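ugh ok fine here u go
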Amino acid sequence: MLTVDLQGGFGEKGRTSVAVSDGDTRIMLDAGIKVGATGDEYYPVLARPVGDIDALFISHAHEDHIGALCRLIHEGYTGPIYMTAETRTEMPATLAQYADAAELWEFMPKDAQIRLFEPGERLSAGALAIETGASGHVVGGVWFSVEGQGRRVVYSADIVPESAVFPMQPLPSCDLLILDASYGADPIPGTERAQRIAKWVADYADGCLLPTPLSGRSLELIAAIDVPFAIEAGMREALSAQIHAPGAVYEDRVDVLAERLAAARDWNVGEALPACPLLVHDGMGVAGPSRPALAAAELAGYPILLSGHLPKGSPGARLVDQGAAAWIRMPTHPTLPENVALWEAAGRPALIGHSCDAAALDALHQHIPALLTGARTGDTYQIDKETIHAHSDFQ
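structure:
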């Protein structure tokens, strides 16, 4: 029997975390934070003390999947931390923005703890077999499949089956699929969203602000827009490394992205906003250069386009609510047809959606009847040979 603990990201967006145990070995998949939350709600709700965790696996370096790493180490986690080389490179910048300031330097992961692997590599912890695959979400991003006791759980983390930039490897069949439901039952194809964004940017080609995460969506935006643009200067090295990471970007997109990046002009915080579209990192305006850039754009009446999740109370959400910024969703998570196809390809297993609220889960259930709409952070599921048993609270 496998035990699956939902430690964050269920019935909510943020602090994504899952633990899987076969009774002898316990592993943790992701350790995110919840932007906009405070206190204990900011971090995953651990089902067991950190000393019971035998290994930690990180899917990618976005804050809702890695932001609680320093907190885990502060609480005493000393075991191995598995991640790709790209996630390792991006980790310090993410933790600098979202980890507790008092924990950041004293409890940063040590090199000796980190175990690097490549997407597609098979790993193990005790008798648990862990399969990985490229997620299509960011360079170095992965999904995880955990097999033990004759049962298999697949945790997708964040995935993009039809990314214009990043390849995704197929998910395997399983008994329980924990799937990226960030978009709920949104049926609009990613290509259509990207076209809408491209048109909006072209309409404001003489100057607009595009806040975006440093990894993932930045390259999706660069692929979508076809007008001269600027970037915050500190993004250039990281974006170039993402484009040229071996096998991480579709081969026929590498030269196009590299040429567009090379042609982009540099912009620094404090300079006048440029007479062209400007990409700055942190897609919510919570941290990084996008926070002062959004303030400057609002003051100057400079057009703003937000394109991702905006937590309640974030600068980006406030601007959209006030009509001071536009919002068009950039396709960096699976839409409804993609999630239906993923579920069917996995053998139509029991399904739990992560990274969305209860209303979105209810809407998705109309199309995927195997979805367990009541799954919430704090729940435990046990998978035996015949059934999946749910428990409302951690035991």
